[in-house]
Design goal:
By secondary structure, the protein is an alpha+beta fold. The chain is built from 4 helices and 8 strands. The protein has one domain: 7,8-Dihydro-6-hydroxymethylpterin-pyrophosphokinase HPPK (Alpha-Beta Plaits, 2-Layer Sandwich). The longest helix has 15 residues.
């Protein structure tokens, strides 16, 4: 069974933000045919898009999985519900958000999932934690590394390393 190198973005800006991130990681550990390889530090970030909401805690994680992209996406959405996600407003506040960022260099899109994530190269809150765990990871469309994408990113939002740590 082939194993794929996959990168996820995690975020929370409602309630006990750190608790939601840790619960999401706990649920990821239970996924069949999946192992958590690495998780970044947690970063506090300003909201993007809809700015009249609380600050986010964001992190990135690398997993090894044999789940195909559609199945993994379905599992990630189920984990969000298990962890307590109730909100669904685009760019709105949320208890937990788990985004599929890069799936082993695959370029894929259907009605539900797009990989690589279409906004990641324009968002420091994604790139900063991802650079911590995979600076040399290559974006499958641009051909740039995460470090290069971050250097070129024009997003002016504040991303500050937090004292919080994800428990893996």
């Amino acid at each position: 069974m082939k194993t794929y190198r996959v990168f996820l973005g995690l975020g929370s800006n409602l309630g006990e933000r750190e608790k939601y991130l840790n619960r999401a990681v706990s649920e990821l550990k239970k996924l069949r045919d999946t192992t958590i390889v690495w998780a970044s530090s947690v970063y506090e970030t300003d909201p993007v898009g809809k700015t009249d909401q609380p600050k986010f805690l964001n992190a990135a994680a690398e997993i090894a999985t044999s789940l195909p992209p559609k199945d993994l996406y379905t599992e990630l959405k189920a984990i969000e519900q298990q962890v307590g996600r109730k909100t669904s407003e685009r760019w709105g506040p949320r208890e937990i958000d788990i985004d599929l960022l890069i799936y082993d260099g695959l370029v894929f899109e259907d009605d539900h999932v797009t990989v690589p994530h279409p906004e990641m190269e324009r968002r420091k809150f994604v790139l900063v934690p991802l650079k911590e765990i995979a600076p040399d990871l290559v974006h499958p469309i641009s051909g740039m590394t995460i470090e290069e994408l971050l250097a070129a990113c024009e997003d002016g939002e504040r991303v500050v390393q937090s004292y919080h740590k994800i428990i893996i």
